[in-house]
Amino acid sequence: MTTNISCRVTPAVGKQVEAAAGEMCAFRSEFVRRALRYYISENPDGLDALASSPTNEARPQRRSQSDTYDPLEEL
């Protein structure tokens, strides 16, 4: 099961996300999902709500560039 989250970003950030997703050969949503997972696992702001996150317990394996992209992986 997934949930939908949306946000607005500046055109410059949108272009960066688009370019980074292109480098990964991934959809923008996959790039944003990975960025959120990384932020949650690193918890740079020390937020209590993220301290006991399941994401912190099981980090996804880094995918090599030769692997085929699966948009449903790591949901």
Outline the fold blueprint.
Elements: H1 11-24, H2 28-42, H3 48-51, H4 54-57
Walk me through what this model shows.
This protein is an all-alpha fold and 75 residues long. It has a domain at 11-57. The chain has four helices and no strands. α1 packs across α2.
- End-to-end Cα distance, whole Å, is 8 Å
User: Helix fraction?
Assistant: 40-55%
Order of helices and strands: HHHH
Q: What percent strand?
A: under 5%
The largest pleated sheet is described as:
none
- Residue stretches low in confidence (pLDDT < 50, at least 5 long) are none
Question: How many alpha or pi helices?
Answer: 4
Give the rounded overall mean pLDDT. Answer: 81
Structural class assignment: mainly alpha
Shape: globular
- What Rg is obtained from the alpha carbons, in whole angstroms? 13 Å
Task: Tally the beta strands.
Answer: 0
Summarize the structure.
By secondary structure, the chain is mainly α.
Question: Which short descriptors sum up this protein?
Answer:
75 residues, mainly alpha
